[in-house]
Amino acid sequence: MGKIILTGDRPTGKLHLGHYVGSLKRRVELQNSGEYDEIYIMIADAQALTDNADNPDKVRNNIIEVALDYLSCGLDPAKSNIFIQSQVPELTELAFYYMNLVTVSRLQRNPTVKSEIQMRNFEASIPVGFFTYPISQASDITAFKATTVPVGEDQKPMIEQTVEIVRRFNSVYGEVLVEPEVLLPQNTACLRLPGTDGKAKMSKSLGNCIYLSDSAEEVRKKVMGMFTDPNHLKVSDPGKVEGNCVFTYLDAFSKPEHFAKYLPEYASLDELKEHYRCGGLGDVKCKKLLIAVLEEELAPIRARRREFEQNIEGVYEMLRKGSQVAQAKAARTLMEVKDAMRINYFQDKELIARQAEAYRECK
Ligand code: ATP
Ligand code: MG
């Protein structure tokens, strides 16, 4: 069995640092490791419509933004197949059959969906499509027979739901589907990067993001306004590092060599944290370090983006080709699924011959 990756993002905005550390950076490393036989990266427009049904232009206009962010981070269409979810209708058909294998109460227990419903103030008016998106995600993953799904921590319940569907399907209909494994970020700060406002998760929907395509000036302003320790008022005050975004971001992005380069008076991040805890270290100094560290990471991404922005037609052509390849693979899986579920009437010549024979004998 080959090693296959499936992952993706919703085109509800440009991609931000949370996407980058949660999944995107890892995808590029996995892509370049040469260890994977097939890689599928999906722009999940159909899923984005589940909570943006009345705003289709938002979804439509962000497809190109997500594709540009992918390319500028180093996803290479020669190695990774980038496609648009809605252009692979087989995925919806699979989801329809999987719906029979999941209960409403199981969906209600999904902690990510629960908190997203709260965040969106859906209360009693949850769109059915949104409520069932974990099932749709199971079809995205299984259609490609993905073995590995690199995502942020919030997606863990979706992979668990997928594994349950795979087990249920295989036990009822026979071994067709492949159980995927979730691949979470190794660095704990990257599991769920907080927003610049200190909220639990940087998220497009919360408006607390630093985008990969933000200018150096925008990044500077956002970092300078970032949530730190509200009780650290004077430089001399002892400060808290836990829950302080500046330190969480330094955990996620800084490397040992950054200290020699930008703050040679500290040997490591641990020393900087220790000084902050004791008092005598101001937020501005830490924020300036973070700005420099982020700029090292973001400047090359920004420069590559500007190049791809000059060839929008080429990017759409890449997506069109990627969607064709994805459709061919999903169609093969759907055929196997329908065979196993015995809804392959016209392909099953034996069925037709047997029933015809039975009726002839009855005469
Ligand atoms: P939306 O608010 O529209 O749901 P989002 O910002 O949550 O958008 P998604 O498209 O839902 O982004 O997530 C895409 C991928 O990025 C997923 O693998 C998710 O786990 C990861 N991800 C998103 N935000 C973060 C974050 N703050 N930290 C780590 N990973 C993240
Ligand atoms: Mg999300």
Could you characterize what this model shows?
The chain has about 375 residues and is mainly alpha-helical. The protein is about 55% helix and about 5% strand. The protein is built from 16 helices and five strands. It has a three-stranded parallel β-sheet with strand order 1-2-3. Strand 1 (about 5-10), helix 1 (about 15-35) and strand 2 form a beta-alpha-beta unit. Helix 4 (about 90-100) crosses helix 8 (about 135-145). The chain is elongated, with a radius of gyration of 24 Å. The N and C termini lie far apart (about 50 Å). The structure holds adenosine-5'-triphosphate (ATP) and magnesium ion.
Supply database-style keywords:
single chain; 363 residues; mainly alpha; three-stranded parallel beta sheet; two-stranded parallel sheet; 5 strands; 55% helix; elongated; binds adenosine-5'-triphosphate; binds magnesium ion
